[in-house]
């Protein structure tokens, strides 16, 4: 039944969809530009061109380049935290009977984060590796640092629970977490570089077929090194 109120609501809903679509278009363009040029060299003009919109339009959605960058990296950290929270809950509920399964699920959690947003995942890693974080504003840098510390603390707690339950060997969880993260990220980066040298533009399922066997071997090596005998 037509009413003026329903009509106004329909118009508002359409405007909301259009605004969200434009926001996602900007984020997608920003991912490509930041990934290819890095934070410091990327400009809002280049992002606007990639998104095929005007620069003033971008500023209607994101006040600064920092704000835009933060909006790309934050979902990756949030997803990491969600994945670790699931592992944490599983351990606290006593659902793990072997260290191998825990290590497998850790790798699956990382891969899920990468698969959900490959560009965002790599932008986060480049931020850590190249000290681009120094180019960010103080507030953005502090917010990312705090969120990162909180997320990775949960990851270390997962390893602590694994040790307490006799699933993995008693090791320094800070070192183990760093090794696990570095191993996963290193494999992903190396395989992407190799694939782009051989077949530029390779992505999606084709890239997955190159990544997964190497990650599976990395998982097996980590399992062998970390898991308690008899709990594998």
What is the average of the pLDDT values?
84
Total DSSP E strands: 0
Radius of gyration, taken over Cα atoms and rounded to an integer in Å: 21 Å
Number of helices: 9
Order of helices and strands: HHHHHHHHH
Tell me, briefly, the overall form.
Answer: globular
Looking at CATH, the homologous superfamily of the largest domain is Tetracycline Repressor, domain 2
CATH fold call of the largest domain: Tetracycline Repressor, domain 2
Tally of discrete structural domains: 2
Describe the protein.
The protein has two domains: 62 residues, Arc Repressor Mutant, subunit A; 162 residues, Tetracycline Repressor, domain 2. Helix content is 80%, strand content 0%. The protein contains nine helices and no strands. The chain starts with a helix and ends in a 6-residue tail after the last helix.
Core attributes:
about 230 residues, mainly alpha, Arc Repressor Mutant, subunit A, Tetracycline Repressor, domain 2, globular
Task: Sum this structure up briefly.
The protein has 232 residues and is mainly alpha-helical. It has two domains: 1-62, Homeodomain-like (Arc Repressor Mutant, subunit A), CATH 1.10.10; 65-226, Tetracycline Repressor, domain 2 (Orthogonal Bundle), CATH 1.10.357. It is 80% helix and 0% strand.
């Amino acid at each position: 039944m037509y009413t003026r109120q329903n009509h106004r609501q329909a118009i508002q809903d359409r405007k909301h969809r259009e605004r969200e679509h434009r926001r996602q278009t900007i984020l997608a363009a920003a991912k490509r530009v930041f990934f290819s040029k890095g934070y410091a060299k990327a400009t809002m003009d280049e992002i606007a061109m990639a998104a095929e919109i005007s620069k003033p339009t971008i500023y209607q959605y994101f006040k600064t380049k920092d704000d835009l960058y933060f909006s790309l990296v934050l979902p990756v950290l949030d997803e990491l935290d969600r994945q670790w929270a699931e592992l944490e809950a599983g351990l606290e509920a006593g659902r793990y009977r072997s260290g191998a399964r825990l290590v497998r699920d850790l790798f699956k959690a990382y891969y899920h984060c990468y698969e959900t947003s490959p560009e965002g995942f790599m932008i986060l890693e480049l931020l850590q590796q190249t000290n681009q974080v120094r180019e960010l504003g103080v507030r953005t840098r502090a917010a990312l640092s705090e969120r990162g510390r909180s997320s990775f603390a949960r990851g270390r707690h997962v390893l602590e629970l694994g040790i307490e339950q006799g699933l993995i060997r008693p090791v320094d969880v800070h070192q183990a977490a760093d090794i696990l993260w570095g191993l996963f990220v290193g494999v992903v980066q190396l395989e992407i570089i190799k694939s782009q040298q051989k077949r530029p533009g390779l992505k999606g399922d084709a890239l997955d077929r190159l990544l997964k066997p190497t990650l599976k071997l990395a998982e097996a090596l980590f399992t062998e090194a970390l898991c308690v005998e008899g709990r594998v």
